[in-house]
Amino acid sequence: MRIVWITLLIPFVLASSDVPDIVPMPADKPDHAAAEDAPSGEKPADKNEATEEQDEAEPPEPVDPPPSPPDEAALAACEAQLKSLGAVFERKDPIDGPGTCGMAASYKVSEIVRGITLAPDTQMRCATALATARWIDEVVLPAARVLGDDVRLTGIRQASTYACRSRNSQPDAKISEHAKGNAVDVATFSFEGHDPLSIKPDQRKGSREESFQMAVRAGACLHFTTVLGPGADAYHDDHLHLDLAKRRSGYRLCQ
Description:
Layout: H1 2-16, H2 33-37, H3 47-57, H4 72-84, E1 88-92, E2 95-96, E3 102-103, E4 106-113, E5 116-119, H5 126-144, E6 152-160, E7 183-192, E8 197-198, H6 208-220, E9 226-228, E10 240-243, E11 253-254
Parallel strand pairs: 5-6, 9-11
Antiparallel strand pairs: 1-4, 2-3, 4-5, 6-7, 7-8, 7-10, 9-10
Helix pairs in contact: 4-5, 5-6
């Protein structure tokens, strides 16, 4: 009987050898490779989210840029020339106005040349003060001699220096040179031995006073790139506007 059972079992053993071995498959690996790189407990940032965060971190372009740093060497040279003309001045802090208004260094000038006051208090660039001083020294003082041998220029009254505004304060106009500290409006000349002379439209009287005004106005264009006065337009009938605007080929506007 044992032989019979062994004989009967042999075919089943041989048949079982043809069945392939069943190897258990590992559990599917989660498709979260990025999560492994992230710190424990943190969700990795989405690529688009990271880009947005980076864009937010970058500062936007300044709408109101600060004044440029002053050129100390140029200012020192300018101040030395002002002192040589006898000017009395004080350097003030930069002016940081809204938008493009302002200047790297502001100057309060009490005497524009020796013995000639400039009032009221000014806020202007050193270059503007120097151009004004040279004009007074080389043009206005000699012209004043026509008013009489006993007449001496003693002061200048200005109507405006720095002012953050558009040209002629008109809406949608370009920025004024006053907003950069590049301009001064001269209203009145004071004298010893003569009444003050204020800028006014030509009276065509052929007087010495009119000749003085014509001379100082014409001579101003030797020192400034813009000179506007009575007759130029309705905005300049009572003062001389003098500025240092830069134009192509060094063009000067004298009206």
